[in-house]
Amino acid sequence: MDYQNRAGSKFGGGGVADRSATNADRRERLRKLALESIDLDKDPYFFKNHVGSFECRLCLTVHQNDGSYLAHTQGRKHQTNLARRAAREEREGKQDPSSLPGAYGVQVKKQTIKIGRPGYKVTKIRDPLTHQTGLLFQIFTHEITPGVTPRVRFMSAFEQKLETPDKDYQYLIFAAEPYQSFAFKLQSKEIDRRDGQYWTWFDEDSKNFWLQIMFKTEREERFTGVPGLAPLRT
């Protein structure tokens, strides 16, 4: 700490530091100490929010810069919370204490940063033989995480909480990390899941995902499984 040019001190001499200067120097020393042992990219509690500030998910504190966060990690509050978290994990048997990184470290799954919704194309189709109508989805997942395959599921209107449930509609949900999951609102008709009518395909080279669905006709929905009715064409 530089003690020169303080009020009442001689040139080259050291004056008495006030409280703010002492705290600033302490934070700088803690930051330098933390830089030697902490990698922010691997810190599960380090989070940058939407306004550019930094948060500690363990202590629920907000910091204006990474230096302030690093100094916080060396403080008593953060170290105490780490010890409490480690003790609780050990007590509940969720983690082997011998595998903890460091004295009080705990392994926490880091959430994936979402990058928005992928592009898509939807085409209406019709089977010339069965006269069934359907949809062909093409999802452009060029930034998909390596090793991840897009997933889909159908959800009834009564499962979702965003809109007033309507029995005349259902939802088709797409999920592919790191993209945000999103859904298409479809008519509430039974899906024909026979081979050739319902299929998915993911192109590993172009990173495009394809899905075809065909809706059963009104006659098929009404009379499927009725004794004496001719079986569906496969």
Automatic annotation (TrEMBL):
Quick one: signal sequence residues? none
Give a Gene Ontology cellular component term annotated to this protein: U2 snRNP
Give GO terms for biological process: spliceosomal complex assembly
Protein name in UniProt: Splicing factor 3A subunit 2
Q: Which Pfam families does the annotation name?
A: SF3A2 (PF16835), zf-met (PF12874)
**Where located?**
Nucleus
Q: Which PANTHER family does the record cross-reference, listed alphabetically?
A: SPLICING FACTOR 3A SUBUNIT 2
Family, per entry: Belongs to the SF3A2 family.
> Which keywords fit this entry according to its UniProt record?
Metal-binding, mRNA processing, mRNA splicing, Nucleus, Spliceosome, Zinc, Zinc-finger
The Matrin-type domain extends over: 54-84
Q: InterPro entries in the record, alphabetically?
A: Matrin/U1-C_Znf_C2H2, Matrin/U1-like-C_Znf_C2H2, SF3A2, SF3A2_dom, Znf_C2H2_type
| Protein source organism | Penicillium chermesinum
